[in-house]
């Protein structure tokens, strides 16, 4: 259905907010982190830090992206979430995590020899219509020009 990079979202006043639009994972070690509450995501983030010989300081896990962003806006911590939506906010800085880059991939799974349910068919049509509408939107086309293209060997979660 889609894919995108993992990002660090932080208050504009955070000491790491300046500079480029990317941030090495290792520079987040020891910083207060807000991460997704799904156990597989927490395990993956811990594994990333272990690969970088660093330790994450996870202070909070949340299932809701908007709550996580609100906490970063208040400079409570740095949110690590997939960049699955564009959230313009002058109080925040979003940086793509590198060193190495990480990607999230969303897939739609269904049983092989079974017709999709009406709900699944509607969802598939919604995704296709959204892609068509979004691709025709000049504002979104501008965002795509700046889309992050990960290195070929980027692992997916």
Helix percentage range: 25-40%
What is the CATH architecture annotation of the domain at 7-103?
A: 3-Layer(aba) Sandwich
Shape: globular
Overall structural class, as computed from helix and strand content, comes to alpha/beta
Q: Let me know the CATH homologous superfamily of the domain at 7-103.
A: Periplasmic binding protein-like II
Terminal residue distance: 14 Å
- Given as residue ranges, the uncertain stretches (5+ residues, pLDDT < 50) are none
Q: How many β-strand stretches?
A: 7
| CATH level 3 topology of the domain at 7-103 | D-Maltodextrin-Binding Protein, domain 2
Individual helix count = 4
Give the H and E element order.
Answer: EEEHEHEEEHH
Strand-residue proportion: 25-35%
CATH class of the domain at 7-103: Alpha Beta
How is the main sheet built? 7 strands, mixed
Q: Determine the mean pLDDT.
A: 84
Radius of gyration: 17 Å
């Amino acid at each position: 259905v889609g894919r995108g990079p993992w990002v660090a979202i932080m208050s504009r006043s955070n000491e790491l907010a300046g500079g480029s639009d990317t941030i090495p994972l290792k520079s987040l070690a020891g910083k207060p982190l807000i991460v997704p509450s799904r156990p597989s995501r927490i395990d993956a983030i811990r594994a990333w830090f272990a690969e970088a010989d660093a330790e994450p300081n996870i202070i909070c896990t949340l299932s809701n992206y908007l709550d996580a962003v609100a906490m970063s806006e208040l400079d409570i911590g740095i949110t690590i979430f997939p960049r699955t939506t564009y959230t313009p906010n002058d109080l925040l800085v979003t940086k793509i995590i590198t060193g190495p880059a990480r990607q999230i991939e969303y897939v739609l799974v269904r049983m092989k020899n079974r017709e999709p349910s009406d709900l699944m068919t509607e969802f598939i049509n919604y995704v296709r219509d959204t892609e068509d509408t979004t691709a025709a939107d000049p504002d979104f086309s501008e965002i795509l020009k700046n889309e992050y293209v990960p290195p070929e060997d980027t692992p997916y979660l």
